[in-house]
Amino acid sequence: MGFDFPSITRINDSLAVQGLLRDLNHHIPIFKDMATVTLSDWTCALNHCRFPLEGPSLRRSFLQHKRSLPYSFSLAHRVLHTTNTSLRPTDLSYLYDGNVSIRHIFNSLPYSLKSCLPLNTPILLKNIGIRRLNQIATWSPLTCRQIPRLIFSPAASPQICRSQILRQYLPILKSWIESFSLKSLVHASFGLPFTYPDPPYTALWTLSIPRAARQRLSELILTNFATSNPRRPPQDPTFTGLSASDGSTIPPAPLPFQSRSSAFSSISTSHTLLATLDAFALSANNQLAEVYGILTAILLLRDTPRPDNPSPVIYSDNSNAVRHLNNALNLPSYNWASNPARALYRWIMDIVHRRHHTAPLLIQHIPSHTSSTSPPARANDLADRIASSAHRSIPRPPPAPLPTFFMDDYTLFSKTHSYIESNPFLYISNILARRSAYEASFRPASTLLHTLHDLTPPPTYPYTRATSAYSAVVQLYARSSQLDTNFTKFRRFGDISPWCSFGCAELETTHHIFTECPRFAHFRTHAKDSLVSTTTSLVQRQPYHLTKDEQAAIVTASSQLFADTDIWPLKRTRYYLGSMPNISDIVHSLSTNQRAHTAIVQSWHVAAIRLAGRIWGEYRRVTSPSRMRPERSKTTVKEMQKLACGVSISELLVIDFDVRQGYTWPHLANLDIVPFGVRVMLYNPIPTRNKTAFAMLRP
């Protein structure tokens, strides 16, 4: 765990989810249609007309339906439940259009909501020619303040009255239909209760609004953000004819489950826009912020065309986004399948194609944080400062809308990460690995408590680029309590002395070998001196702005890294496990000085794992069987019994022994010199048929 060693189970589970997503969003229509038909059969025939990949249906098991459902679909369903994720359809407009079977809606409702009508109501309506929802009801207008509700269509009354049974239920049927809102029908189709708490940013019912209407609403929201922004547009005349955008994320490279703050800005002489990516939850990153900034700049240029500048220029400091927009916008959509911001890129392409004026739009890269005084550089610097101000702004800037209208038809969703457009294989693998790490049976979790130590990600080079992974292997076995020290082998097999092989009056534990054993003291001393020298030169660098007292405290802490000192949470060093003490507790200013914090911790980490690798390599070299194997000599039973005179038996072991090979003198590995005298393990062989009893004797 922690070194990306593959797990066959996790690979299979992740591939099952990735394969299901690929089939449902396939760019070849026939493959997509086959998967969609299978999903429809799964929904209606096996799950009571409720979507099986979201909501309470994830708690069911469909592994028993092997004849009617592909096993890969059932496996993906189980993995989604295990990882607390789901597959959301991003287009439920058939409910808003009313192009859905009344029988389908009737079956998806719980019994308590349809008990007022005969159970064969859908069949009775079908017999008089009413099959779809839009034949019997319409929706109230969609407004920002009210969710649409069903309105009974008067034109359906004469048709219903032709049925003698339905005629008497007409008032009940009318009130029953008008009791439903668009939100309640969407929740029913997923098997969710009507009172289900739906977050406003990712509300399920909004997916039933047609894609075009959602897009128009989102563009209107962004335009209003620009017009209602209290910050005035820059009046610098040198900015005429150009726009600049930028994104900002804190921390710059967040961990997958680390909270973050992302925002973007777009400026020109006619507008200033600032918004956050709070709706994206933990999926927000700097790439999304940069692309969203470019999108808003293009959108606002389209809405405010300038006759005096037919070819506007947009500047961004994100070279990846600029290169992708300039080179890949006209590629087929399936080329964007692995792009984590593909919904935003599709939105940009649609805006560009709908531009009112035909002049080409130029998107250019501008280096950031330079000393240049050119108008593009100054405009980008202003956009960067505006975007960075969002992290400390009170109240917080408004959140930008999610581009669900340009997402894949089926998109991975999580309550913590919102809609996930990144690689589903890596995301599911990460979730499964974290789940395994927090299980009670996971050995490293009982070896090391991560929350007490520094959580800064380690440098990637020793684990992904180095030609030798010996240090990583030592960590893996140490965290799993698998390093084959004498104490570990004694606990497992009981046929070896648990004491230190080098004469210490201590158990040979992992901690003793790496921290206390004098046999390796010169390794620790050399590593400590080298680390102190490295840390001293590191903290004196100008960009870190550390005071003399802070520098001295950090250097002092580095000299105590390889010993049981107060800098460690439990006063017990864990450097050989690849963990570091939280240096923000030693120097409080490092909690905000992220750059210095990361540099110091990563340099300590490299020194620690190198020392652990050297110590364990020397231990294995000295204790290898070829160096510890004694010379075999012959002796007699009488001689051994004579040696054993006056010796007390402390342990009796019975092992297989071939009496035809004679009796062998005990090997020298069991002779230990300790401060209290000589401790010798002598074996007193006593022939018993085809076996020999061996006694551990102590003088």
UniProtKB/TrEMBL annotation:
Q: Where is this region: Disordered?
A: 226-245
**Superkingdom in the source lineage:** Eukaryota
Q: Which InterPro entries match?
A: RNaseH-like_sf, RNaseH_sf
Alphabetically, the GO molecular function entries are: nucleic acid binding
Question: Which named protein is this?
Answer: RNase H type-1 domain-containing protein
Where does this protein come from, organism-wise? Paramarasmius palmivorus
